[in-house]
What does this fold into?
Amino acid sequence: MNLLLLAVLASGPAHGYALSAELRRRSGEALRIVEGTLYPALHRLEAAGLVASTSEVTDGRRRRVYQITADGKDALEEEMNSWKEFQTCIDQVLDQTP
Amino acid sequence: MHRPGTRSDPVTNRGEFDTYLKRVTSSLGNNRAQRARVLEEIENHLIDATDEHMRRGVPRVEAEALALEELGPPETVGAEFAIESGPVEKRSGVVRWLPLALPIGLLVVSIVAALALLTSLGDGWTVGDGVALRALLWMAVIAIVLALASFLAIQRADLDRTWRWVAWAGSGAVIAYFILR
It folds into this structure.
């Protein structure tokens, strides 16, 4: 979840619903998370200093907008590398399947 | 006048929305700020999701029900909020604010030197004293400008590390000032 949220936020700031909509769009509607768990995950990322949030008023509603921090960009790069290594391992195993 | 199926319509499932929000926040502690933030975010999500379904032609009542369903069981969401974040390795405060050291040092030196000059003055006030005092006051003004610039750059550096170099530029300017003198 953290990797996906940081990856979407790397494209620009977004509020919670926009984040979940973008996750669905990027996955071709295949990825359906329990959307309510998005917010606790964002709060934990913020507590870890990987995202920062500001409160903004749009369309007459106060919304919390999240953006990735410099530490978040580093964490995203590390997570992406780990994920690619893991993916390579799985691919190697599957490639040897008769 | 309301267009049918827009966000300006009243929420028909207000009671269900409120029950959901109450069940989510029941597992939170007594932190009022956190509770208010969670309520605001979840409620905004419900309104956005309802609008999205209605734009796709789903009637309001069903759109609201779908929005609630997609958020997931309120107890699951509340339990996720209750999970403490693990230990975090953050840039320590000292390292973060280090670029401020030289500009603030320059400010302190200039103020102390100006005060020392003023207290050492006896009866006479020479032209040289005036020039020295003016130079020290200018030094203090420059130090304040550099410190402010570094402070703002340090805050920007939390989002974009390029600003870290700008923050250190204040220290570079102090060093250059003394070398050139």
In short: The two ends of chain B are 72 Å apart (CA to CA). Chain B touches chain A through 33 residues (CB under 8 Å). Helices of chain B lie at 14-25, 32-55, 60-71, 74-82, 93-97, 101-120, 127-157, 162-180. Residues 1-8, 85-89 of chain B have pLDDT under 50 and may be disordered.
